[in-house]
Amino acid sequence: MKPTLSNTISDRLGDYSGVNSLLAVGFLILLSFVFLSPARAQSRDERKKIEVFNLSDVRLLPGPFRHAQEMDERYLLELDPDRLLASYYKTAGLKPKAPQYGGWESTHLSGAILGHYLSAASMMFASTGNPKLKERVDYIVDRLKQCQETRFPDTQETSLHLKMDHNQKLTLEIRHPWWAGAGFSIEVNGRKLADTGEPGSCFRVSLEWHSGDKITVHLPMRLRVFPMANDSDKVAIMYGTIVLAGELGGHVPLPYAKDNSQFFDMPDVSVPSLAIEGKPVNEWLKPVAGHPLYFKTVGVGRPNDLELKPLYEISHQHYTVYWDIVRPD
Asked: What CA–CA distance (Å, rounded) separates 44 from 136?
């Protein structure tokens, strides 16, 4: 018998595992649009409105889609949450419960996979109802709460709440960032510590800790101007640890481009310069009322003043983080 398209795909799906099975599912969905579309086009009146539905409203029947889902589910349950949490424990000064994974997890990208894992496990729970997946998500979220609570940088402080089964003597190393301004302080249960170390160092706090103890680190931020290493007439501006960027207009739509060459056809945008030579940054860069991390230049922009905001808040927009310095008029 001549193999059909569905038979061929079903046979080949058995060769996929882990992430590859996700690609297989995406491929099948694409084929469903290509090969299963109606024979005749529907009129405007016949078309039904597309509505969003929850993953929990759908359950897959036995077949290639269910097979791919089960392989992904099995892979998620094989990963050890404590190994994914290892770098978070280390950063919080706690002893990891399991060794860190290798690969990216053992580099400067350690911890990045945990966010992807939480999303995947949550969506798989919604799709299957497997209670083991929800237990994983709840466990990870609970452990992260032990590591840190923060709304930084919107507020210039961060807190660590301890949840412990029993009292334990530990030494926590709390970094005093080099970028922190005057007023950096550490509090333990509301009591300010007399010494916090030098900027750029770690301060050691050795105590017998109890469940419910709270460590609060106050991180006042200040404005700084950083010239480029090979060009002192071009600078970047930071507020504490945040790189500030200026929007230049010219909205960039999605998709960004069909190919790389399309970027060269986009219109140029004008980048203002700054006439700030010899002027302290606090004199010409002022906070924007109601926006704690926004700033506006005052009288130094050429040809116009501009607003700066955190780089991470800018998307689909032309922007720059480097500014040319020009001599005052």
From this structure: 46
Integer-rounded Cα Rg, in Å, for the chain is 27
Tokens of 269: 């945008």
Distance (Å, whole) CA 311 – CA 128? 38
Digit-coded pLDDT (tens) for 245-293 = 998 876 665 555 555 565 566 667 788 999 998 899 999 999 999 888 9
Cβ atoms of 78 and 71 within 8 Å: the answer is no
Stated pTM of the model: 0.55
Q: How many CA atoms, within 13 angstroms, populate the side-chain half-sphere of residue 61?
A: 0
Segment 237-244 mean pLDDT: 94
- pLDDT, position 102: 86
Non-local CB neighbours of 167 within 8 Å, separated by 6+ positions: 208, 209, 210, 211
In 76-97, which positions are buried (b, 16+ CB within 10 angstroms) versus exposed (e)? beeeebebbbbbbbeebbbeee
Alpha-carbon gap, residue 100 to 80, rounded angstroms: 10
Q: Which of 90, 88, 93, 89 has the alpha carbon at shortest distance from 174?
A: 93
Closest by CA to 305, choosing from 279, 290, 285, is 285
Q: Give pLDDT tens digits for 23-79.
A: 444 544 444 444 444 444 455 555 566 777 788 888 999 999 999 999 999 999 999
The secondary structure of 144-161 as a DSSP string is HHHH-EE-TTTSSEEEEE
Is 234 within 8 Å of 324 (Cβ atoms)? yes
